[in-house]
Amino acid sequence: MKMLCRPRVPRPERRIGVVMSWQMENEQPSVMSPTETSWRSTSEDNPADSGPPPQSRSTDRPAHTPRDVRNGDHPSRPGTLPPVPGRLPRLLAPWVPLVLLALLLAISWQVAGHGPLLRIDDQVRDAIARTDGALPAQTVRPAADHIAQLLSDLGGSLVAIPFLLACSLLSTWRSLRGRVPRWWLPVAAAALTSLLIPLLVVPAKAYFARPGPDGLVLLPDQWGWYPSGHTATAAIAYGTSALLLARATVRSGVRTALRAGALLLGTGVGAGLMWCDYHWFLDVVASWCLSGLVLWTLGRLLPRLADRG
């Protein structure tokens, strides 16, 4: 008995393959830039999005990846998510307060016991006097003295504290506009640091009762010169202002400029006090160490308190 074979039916796969190969041969490849490709893929994934390609959060050019589009949740920290190492995290490392505290204790020990380290004060004072005497008396010396006096005045509480409060109000206003949780943190931080300065400096002045560079004996109702109150006020007030304003901006260049300005102001006030013979060198260094401890603590607490909101 002769068996009849079934009629062959063309496979759909082969027909589809033939059609696809014909389309690939006749289709012209389209050339698209990486920006258009990434933006088109993003638009296809989310049809509701429309408009121009988003800008990068670190440059002014179009973003190429979704990671480049999103903003960091910690504006005060450099880098991407997760934060990459930067200058501010290195300054907030755990070893920084240990070094500052050790230096502050060593200087305080020498001041209390009239140790040999105090010779540095005389050497720095003599070097400043020689430099001042070498300047032209009619032109450069008056200008240098005027600048030093101006820098010294910037460390006064009547200048530094109002500046700190104004910066805290500006940071609070920016937080309210951005609907940031715990928008009141800048004002609270400014008020706390303003009260903390006299609480730290005045008892130390009364305890050490160190005479100033003029050599006059302290009266019973006078405080000492150690540590420098103007230096501590300037460093803490301007440093806190920089930290608060840096939280209100996402531009790394602006944050760097704010920190550099605070550093220059704190250093300039200390240098002006020594140039005008208002304070010893170690008085100023001790206040820098004390201010560094306060700013380090504030720099660690502010992001954590903001995250809890």
TrEMBL record:
Domain Phosphatidic acid phosphatase type 2/haloperoxidase: 185-299
Basic and acidic residues: compositionally biased ranges: 58-76
Biased composition (Polar residues): 23-45
Name of the protein described by the UniProt record: PAP2 family protein
Species in which this protein is naturally found: Peterkaempfera bronchialis
Keywords: Membrane, Transmembrane, Transmembrane helix
Location of the region described as Disordered in the Swiss-Prot/TrEMBL record: 20-84
InterPro entries documented for this protein: PAP2/HPO, PAP2/HPO_sf
Gene3D superfamilies: Phosphatidic acid phosphatase type 2/haloperoxidase (1.20.144.10)
Transmembrane segments: 91-112, 154-171, 183-204, 224-245, 257-275, 281-302
